[in-house]
């Protein structure tokens, strides 16, 4: 069954037990906080947490097919049905493919509290591009995303600008979303964001320095018995505690590639049956292209036929998303053989992203050497921004890992990067499948899984 919820494994302890000295220091600091809280500080009112959402990528996408605005029930009071209708009409007036998704995110929900992961899952479920999406982020802040990735409509800056505007400081969520839609529609998101950022810089620069405000400092009694003292002691406790934990942390065991768990959200939400249909369609399309190819004018016809045969074999034996993605890669290899001139393979990070736009060198975390890989435009943009790209994830040895982290002896796809890591023109995915490498690695993977169970 498909799910948007990240699967987790029990992590190994990251810290050693604290020493007696460390424990004593932390205990003393906590006692100090207790004394201050009990004698001088007013009791803090318990916060009323926003209910966790039960929404999934599939349910949000289904709702967005009938209205461009999705509001989680937890935000129903903040964005009423009438306001939702106004936003929908405002979006329609722009003529742009804008969707609004307002969901209270937190760790442990279907998106692990990551609005970027939520946006990626919803976009994948919608299957829509171009697309502009405005999402809720932290508190009343907004985030903006575009597909294809870029700044065509300045969605990111428009959403960020709303959080800086003075006139919207105390505005409701509906008003902020409306202003973001307006900025996207007029193409002034970047202009307003830069203007507001400059304003804030000027205001900060104009503020008097701390030493010039000595007379404004509260009296000694208020500093030692009020919230200032509590804040100071809490900060001290956190700093010292963090230092102790960092010092006692075990040296991490680096794997070949490391990505945050939220990156896998889109993969866990993927519909395997849908990808199988897509893979079958790609093989059928390649077969149709082969039927119309002229052997006299198509030098790569033989390679294309090999790729077609290999794609059919893998499709018949496919066991999960990685193998189905391999069918896509083989079909792409066949199409490239029929085309004039060289073509890049599918995206290294996830073949479902489509044909790569460029090659780039990338140094995986924990490695010294760089890897030359083919990447799509979205992944190239993510790497440029020092963000982890969306990757095709698999379960291996009880862990969820990027497909390319599986040992090469258990995965043809890890060994080849779906075409990115082939050694030269004569080294092809089709040749590897024909030589039996797919069958051998698949067998080893199944035996390893059986042993793990």
From TrEMBL:
Residue spans crossing the bilayer: 228-246
Keywords recorded for this protein, A-Z: Membrane, Signal, Transmembrane, Transmembrane helix
Region (Disordered): 194-222
Keyword Cell division: no
Top-level taxon of the source organism: Bacteria
Bias (Basic and acidic residues) ranges: 194-216
Signal peptide segment: 1-46
Protein name: TPM domain-containing protein
Protein source organism: Kitasatospora phosalacinea
């Amino acid at each position: 069954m498909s799910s948007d919820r990240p699967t987790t494994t029990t992590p190994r302890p990251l810290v050693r037990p604290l020493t007696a000295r460390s424990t004593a220091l932390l205990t003393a600091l906590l006692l100090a906080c207790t004394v201050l809280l009990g004698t001088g500080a007013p009791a803090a009112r318990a916060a009323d947490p926003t209910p966790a959402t039960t929404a999934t990528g599939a349910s949000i996408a289904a709702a967005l097919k009938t209205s461009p605005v999705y509001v989680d029930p937890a935000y129903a009071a903040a964005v009423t049905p009438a306001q939702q209708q106004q936003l929908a009409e405002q979006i329609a007036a722009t003529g742009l493919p804008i969707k609004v998704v307002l969901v209270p995110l937190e760790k442990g929900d279907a998106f692990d509290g990551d609005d970027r992961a939520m946006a990626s899952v919803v976009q994948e479920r919608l299957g829509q591009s171009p697309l502009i999406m405005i999402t809720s982020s932290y508190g009343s802040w907004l985030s903006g995303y575009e597909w294809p990735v870029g700044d065509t409509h300045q969605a990111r800056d428009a959403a960020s600008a709303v959080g800086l505007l003075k006139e919207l400081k105390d505005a409701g969520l509906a008003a902020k979303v409306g202003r973001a839609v307006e900025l996207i529609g007029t193409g002034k998101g970047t202009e307003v964001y830069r203007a507001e950022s400059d304003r804030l810089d000027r205001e900060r620069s104009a503020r008097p320095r701390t030493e010039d405000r000595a007379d404004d400092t509260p009296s000694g009694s208020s500093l030692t018995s009020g919230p200032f003292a509590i804040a100071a002691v809490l900060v001290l406790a956190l700093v010292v505690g963090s230092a102790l934990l960092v010092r006692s942390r075990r040296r991490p065991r680096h794997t070949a590639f490391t990505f945050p768990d939220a990156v896998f959200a889109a993969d866990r939400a993927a519909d395997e049956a849908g990808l199988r249909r897509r893979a079958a369609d790609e093989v059928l399309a390649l077969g149709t292209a082969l039927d119309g190819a002229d052997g006299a004018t198509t030098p790569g016809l033989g390679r294309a036929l090999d790729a077609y045969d290999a794609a059919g074999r893998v499709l018949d034996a496919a066991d999960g998303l990685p193998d189905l993605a391999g069918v896509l890669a083989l079909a792409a290899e066949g199409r490239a053989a029929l085309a004039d001139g060289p073509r890049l393979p599918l995206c290294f990070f996830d073949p479902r992203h489509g044909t790569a736009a460029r090659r780039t060198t990338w140094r995986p975390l924990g490695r010294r050497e760089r890897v030359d890989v083919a990447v799509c435009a979205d992944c190239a943009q993510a790497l440029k921004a020092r963000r982890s790209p969306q990757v095709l994830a698999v379960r291996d040895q009880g862990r969820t890992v990027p497909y390319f982290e599986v040992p090469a002896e258990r995965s043809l796809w890890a060994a080849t990067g779906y075409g990115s890591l082939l050694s030269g023109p004569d080294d092809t995915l089709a040749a590897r499948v024909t030589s039996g490498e797919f069958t051998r690695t698949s067998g080893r993977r199944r035996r390893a899984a059986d042993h793990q169970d």
